[in-house]
Design brief:
By secondary structure, the protein is an alpha+beta fold. The protein contains three helices and eight strands, in the order βαββαβαββββ. It has one domain. The protein has helices spanning 7-13, 38-48, 77-88; strands spanning 2-4, 18-22, 31-36, 68-73, 91-95, 98-102, 111-114, 117-120. Strand 5 (91-95) and strand 6 form a beta hairpin. The two termini are 24 Å apart.
């Protein structure tokens, strides 16, 4: 079962598509600077509808380079996790400690459980 309860968990579940860099880039200390691969940028486009990102800070891997960067709040995983997990898992659950997903890989999620309520996914 996969679990995403913080940005670091999100970074691990995306296999580097969202690469956390530093919180020092934000003068308020509220957001974390992240480099994005094409897959990471596509994920943030899907979640937030964003189409314009800042220039990447680091190059990334040769086979999967960073193409952009973004500032994410400590709570961004609450927006991103359900979309990311629904791509690869049958069911996504929201519990107090974050999102968990179960089911067979490759079978799209059919429902999301938020608290005690099941919410069907469109499509």
């Amino acid at each position: 079962m996969k679990r995403i309860a913080c940005l670091r968990d999100l970074e691990q579940c995306t296999a580097g598509a969202i690469d956390l860099l530093t919180g020092e880039a934000d003068a308020l200390g509220y957001r974390v600077l992240c480099d994005l691969t094409r897959e990471g940028a596509a994920l943030l486009c899907e979640v937030y509808g964003a189409t314009v990102f800042a220039e990447n800070w680091n190059h990334g891997r040769e086979d999967d380079p960073h193409v952009a960067s973004a500032m994410l709040s400590d709570h961004a995983h609450l927006d991103i996790a359900p979309v990311l997990l629904a791509r690869t898992c049958h069911t996504v659950f929201h519990r107090g400690g974050g999102f968990r997903a179960g089911g067979r890989r490759g079978v799209p999620a059919r429902r999301v459980r938020l608290g005690g309520e099941q919410v069907p996914l469109a499509g």
